[in-house]
Write the structure tokens for this entry.
Amino acid sequence: MAKCCWLPWLIIILLPLPPCDGSSGADVDPTAGFAAVELTGDMFKLHKPYDLPPEQRYEFRDGVRRMWVLCSDRPFSPGSTTKPRSEILLNKTYTSGVWQFEAYGYVPSGTTGVSILQVFGASGRNTTLMLHVYGGRLMYYHDEARVVDGDIYDRWFRLNVVHDVAGVGKLAVFVDGERRLTVAGHGGYRHYFKFGVYVQRDPSHYMESRWRDVKVYTKIVD
Ligand SMILES: *[C@@H]1O[C@H](CO)[C@@H](O)[C@H](O)[C@H]1NC(C)=O
Ligand SMILES: *[C@@H]1O[C@H](CO)[C@@H](O)[C@H](O)[C@H]1NC(C)=O
């Protein structure tokens, strides 16, 4: 092939491919190439104020898990110095490979100063990733420079968190199928996901989040 003929080919190759599913051209489905992991009911472990029965801080109805907490609540175990929470520990631990959490979440307006999702397990610290809500914004911890959604209140949003454990690790967060964040991990060798409400900075008196269609995927490695 003559030299002059290469340029158009190069341009074609470098152009992003149009979506094949008739969608508007958002990112590809974050779960593409992943396989769903079977989750059983006993893997959903509720952490709630130790002095209250589950039904005072958790409800599972019509496929929706609703968790709420007050900033004045007790921690999840007597003697713990951690802040109050009503959170589900998804007891599907992983140590290597690429894993993904997917769910539809909902945060009612007014809920602030709270973590709604954690990737637990790290080296020299407890978590590899947390997503906090402050005044309607969803962000990486309390990092103002890493807001993953500017307007999270009062709507169902699709959340996908991909954790590539290898090496130092890296994570990607998608909201409504759109990649919003890519960050390095924090090491560690044993990980799992937690979701719900866990008090952080300047919390509102009442905090709540709702979740449905919670799934965990792992990457098919050929
Ligand atoms: C998680 O499951 C393992 C068994 O797979 C069990 O040994 C462990 O106690 C469970 N952890 C919690 C917090 O329930
Ligand atoms: C991890 O969390 C526990 C409370 O659950 C806390 O006591 C401990 O200091 C934390 N570890 C690190 C390294 O931050």
About this structure: The mean pLDDT is 90.
